[in-house]
Amino acid sequence: MGAPVKNESGSTAVASRDAFGDALVRLGETHPELVVLEADLSESTRSKKFAKKFPERFFQMGIAEANMVGVAAGLSLAGKVPFCCSFACFVTSRFDQIRMSACYSATNVRIVGSHAGVGIGEDGYSQMGLEDIALMRSLPTMTVIQPADDLETAGAVEALVTHKGPAFLRTTRQKLDRVNDEGYKFELGKGVTLVDGKDLTIVASGGTVGPAVKAAALLASDGLSTRVINIHTIKPIDVPLLVKAARETKRILTVEDHQITGGLGGAVCEALAELEPVRIRRHGILDVFGESGTPEGLYRHFKLDADGIAAVARDFVG
Amino acid sequence: MSSDRDKLATLQQRAFDLRIDNLTAITAAGSGHPGGTLSAMDLLQALFFGEMRHRPNEPHWPDRDRFVLSKGHAVPALYTVLAHAGYFSRDLLPTLRRLGSPLQGHPANFLLPGIEASTGSLGQGFSMAIGMALASKLDGDKYRVYSLIGDGESQEGQIWEAAMAAPKYKLDNLCVILDHNKGQIDGFVDEVMSLNPIADKWRAFNWNVVTCDGHDYASIQAAFAQARETRGKPTFILAETIKGKGVPFMEGKIGWHGVAPTKEQLEEAVLELRAAAAAHKARILVQAGGVSLEVKKAGKPN
What we know:
- The complex is a heterodimer.
- Chain A is an alpha/beta fold.
- Chain A has helices at 16-30, 42-45, 48-53, 65-77, 88-92, 95-104, 132-137, 150-162, 209-221, 239-249, 264-275, 295-301, 306-317, and strands at residues 14-15, 34-38, 58-60, 81-87, 110-114, 143-145, 167-170, 175-176, 192-195, 200-204, 226-230, 233-235, 251-259, 279-285.
- In chain A, strands 3-2-4-5-7-6-12 form a 7-stranded mixed beta sheet, with helices on both faces. In chain A, strands 9-11-10-13-14 form a 5-stranded mixed beta sheet, with helices on both faces.
- The radius of gyration of chain B is 18 Å and the shape is globular.
- At the A-B interface, α4 and α6 of A face α4 and α5 of B.
């Protein structure tokens, strides 16, 4: 069977929003062009760490996300690299501003949406980013990144300091088990095969990658050899890696803490339908609203924990 | 003084040519926004021919003053002014809105030198101007930033988010100009969704508020000068303008917001503008020669 999840104890599990906040502070030292904008959620998005360290490069824009995105675009057009932070649902719903000011004005704006998915827990649907990937993925020139652990988040933020073009970075409130090895090197646009397998491929991203790796272990003990691919860059997606997996395992299960419409599942279907049509099951939030509950309870309810993913996989494979 | 008067006369004279080129381009395109381009034209010329520090042959000069056209639908006026300033050939103007032309129906900054930001969805350019002004402050206050907004545009919530933000950061390097032509597509602003009292609103948001006649170059320049001298606050210039200014059959008519003139209407407009230009030139010559004419008191020079 494949590689186990590293650091099973959970002692090194880190929320990707924390890894993001730390990376900003670290990179702020060496990149004077890095600036951060916030819409009154600096404690929650973890941009506060940067605010304390570099107050002159931190812009508290208040609860006015549309203006924040536009101001970020202007800062970028004048040579800065702005990270523009809020909850994923609030900032990406300023779609028109992201479309026109961040994308069509050819900027390097980084939209950072924290509180991805039902994994945020008790606050419920209104605070959950569940349609944000679909929105951001539809925009020309936009890069969409969702890291799966702290190492990947740090690597993604570093890549985004120098990357050309607008980007969306999706982070979680909940802690994520580490799925990558120390010394992991983030490569934008490249999927990561975490577990090898030949009967089925689970394609996951962000908060569902850890549970997917655990699910693969459960399935392996049932005799189902399951590959796990971590897609941290949802756009541009790693088409060759997906095509290879489709050819070799014939079945693809996508798992995401996001609506199955337009998110990771949509992206995988679009890529494979044209190049290597195989059976695909999209698993995630099945065109319904999220609700309040504990993060763990919600992952169980929506079958995004290891047991749930394994059950969906068994049903899919039949 | 005489040199200042000459400069004003040159601006006034060029304003006729700009209006003709602008309407010619819109007519060639077969669509566009004559009313709001003509109301904005004098403000735009005053910016690019006098007020702003910029280098048409070095459009990306880092220390240049920036201009963001937030009311993006008035871009034919900006294209015309940029072409006359030397950013690109005037021959490009008739390609407005044609497939493959960098002169998009609304501004696209990555296609054309001199266009600082892509706009056309109202309310957004102003925020981008704030970002540029913040960057200027971070980099040692090297340049000023100007943005032109519209009446209808001022109904966007984002305008008021931005109006809150700029004074917080004491952006005295930022000057926002309202092309107050009182019209929008569906009718008069006061009927669609009134902005009044405009100046009071901006004062309440802690802006330095200046008013000017948006078709009188001396008045516009005085407003810009006051903006430049103000410290610790951004400036809002309430420019009183006339939709369709310079073409009698368009002036003040809502119907000319977003409809291109026919060829016949263009001919009529050009004739009107040429006649006005000739009359203006004669008036200037007479003034230069020290001769007094009765028309001198007929009204403000265009």
